[in-house]
Design a protein that fits this description.
The protein is mainly beta. 8% of the residues lie in helices and 29% in strands. Bound molecules: fe (ii) ion. The site of fe (ii) ion has 4 residues, from loops.
């Protein structure tokens, strides 16, 4: 935990309870009740040793490593030995395979897990279109709202819900940009979210893509059918396509970003001449242990929202869908602490291209040209000699959607706010604003620590289109273009 001691990245929940929502005691009760259901029924020895009440340590001992094949059971003996699908599974559980890639995908990229659950996933009422979510701001590409624009765009952070307004994670998502096509399985969407209410008996499963969640302010608990993850600002969590889950703020409010990846699942980038180590280390990714909840059945007591081809469908269940008692495989949610990133940069002059900061990549059919990359701009030393140190002026065939978790981004000292976002589409010029240019051109080039900051980018080969919601004057900064207009002619 040395990283957190060095740099706690304490981005607190944004201004909590201006809403008047009585969040704390009710939600604590909700959590304890849910956890107790698991504890009372699982008899998991580690849990039973906990006499101090429920705590995260009782259910979230992580399984370490990126893409490893794990096995985990919430009750000893729940996992079949020696085979996947015995005639009768242990403890009366149902065996169910969850395939994240085609059966015939090459072994090195084949993703699947076996889940041993109290009821198979097929037990639910018929799907019906969900009215309010289908009219909401959580959108799927292609949108067709307006022509894709080459104009540089920048957005202010989502506002905190107003007095008395409750937003759970699903209703709190606003899509700003997206590209590609969900039906053809390529591209991605860039969402922002703000939530101040638990999902309670509502659960979500996304058939359209995996979700890379980037909390920006306020931590979240992600309860999935394969276990529980907690993520705070400067951590990310990835929920694979098809995994059932819910997200709840663990303080009053949480705000952040989401990359919904319609394409190939994220993986670690190749390291090339860097060698065997560096960037995000596989050992620092963690997946949750098996955890489940069960309880008295009652008809239509739980709702499962299923997103399929851009539409939200609702079905009712008599039980929690988080009822997997044991699982094994390599297709599972995971989290990663961005502060553990091994940042690599120049020790002589100029910049490496920002691909050196790639945490995860979703490849496309063209080698080296990502469907979408997740890239960060973490704290680091700048030591480059006789070099303009901020990011260089740039036009790029790739399209760049950026966000800021905390601190100040080194190309924009003003206007690009934590919780805000920017978009520089394919071949749209961008770079430091006039103030940053003037300052960096004159500053002494002693070693400098860029500290207490964390920006990121969803970088895609496909140009982004924006939603109507992204053009709301309260979000879109209409004067962004002006930040470069002070760049004067210095030619002599
Ligand atoms: Fe760029």
């Amino acid at each position: 935990m040395r990283h957190r001691e060095q740099w706690p990245c304490q981005v607190e929940a944004p201004n909590q309870d201006s809403s008047g929502f009585i969040f704390g005691p009710e939600f604590v009760h909700f959590r304890i009740w849910r956890i107790f259901k698991c504890r009372a029924l699982s008899l998991y020895p580690l849990i039973m040793k906990d006499h101090q009440g429920p705590s995260l340590s009782t259910y979230s001992m992580p399984l370490a490593g990126f893409g490893n094949t794990f096995e985990s059971e919430a009750i000893p003996g729940a996992l079949p030995r020696g085979q996947n699908s015995p005639q009768v599974a242990p403890l009366g559980l149902y065996a169910e395979q969850l395939s994240g890639t085609a059966f015939t995908a090459p072994r090195h990229s084949n993703l699947r897990s076996w889940l041993y659950r109290i009821r198979p996933s097929v037990v639910h009422s018929p799907f019906e279109l969900h009215d309010s979510l289908n009219r909401g701001d959580f959108r799927t590409a292609p949108f067709g709202d307006r022509p894709p624009s080459p104009q540089q765009m920048r957005w202010s952070p989502l506002p905190i819900p107003s007095h008395g307004e409750k937003k759970d994670f699903l209703s709190g998502i606003t899509t700003l940009a997206g590209n590609g096509s969900v039906s053809s399985g390529h591209g991605c969407a860039a969402h922002v979210y703000v939530t101040n209410a638990p999902m309670e008996e509502r659960f979500f499963v996304n058939a359209d893509g995996e979700l890379l969640i980037v909390p920006q302010a306020g931590p979240i608990q992600i309860r999935t059918e394969m276990g529980i993850l907690e993520a705070e600002p400067c951590e990310i969590a990835v929920i694979p396509r098809g995994v059932k889950f819910q997200v709840n703020p663990t303080q009053n409010t949480s705000r952040g970003y989401i990359c919904e990846n319609y394409g190939a699942p994220f993986k670690l980038p190749e390291l090339g001449p860097i060698g065997a180590n560096g960037l995000a280390h596989a050992r620092d990714f963690v997946s949750p242990n098996a955890w489940f909840e069960t309880g008295p059945s009652s008809e239509f007591s739980h709702e499962l929202i299923h997103k399929f081809q851009g539409k939200f469908w609702s079905s009712q269940l008599s039980h929690s869908p988080l009822d997997v008692v044991a699982w094994h495989g390599n297709y599972a949610p995971y989290k990663y602490d961005l502060r553990k990133f091994n940042t690599i940069g120049t020790v002589s002059y100029d910049h490496p291209d920002p691909s050196i900061f790639t945490v995860l990549t979703s490849p496309s059919d063209t080698v080296g040209t990502a469907n979408v990359d997740f890239v960060i701009f973490p704290p680091r030393w700048m030591v480059a000699e006789h070099t303009f140190r901020p990011p260089y002026y740039h036009r790029n065939i790739m399209s760049e959607f950026m966000g800021l978790i905390t601190g100040i981004y080194d190309a924009k000292e003003e206007g690009f706010l934590p919780g805000g976002a920017s978009l520089h589409n394919c071949m749209s010029a961008h770079g430091p604003d006039a103030t940053t240019f003037e300052k960096a051109s004159a500053s002494a080039l002693s070693p400098q620590k860029i500290d207490q900051t964390m920006a990121f980018m969803f970088e895609s080969r496909y140009p982004f289109e924006t939603t109507q919601a992204a053009h709301e004057p309260s979000l879109l900064q209409g004067d962004y273009w002006k930040c470069w207009q002070g760049l004067k002619k210095n030619f002599v």
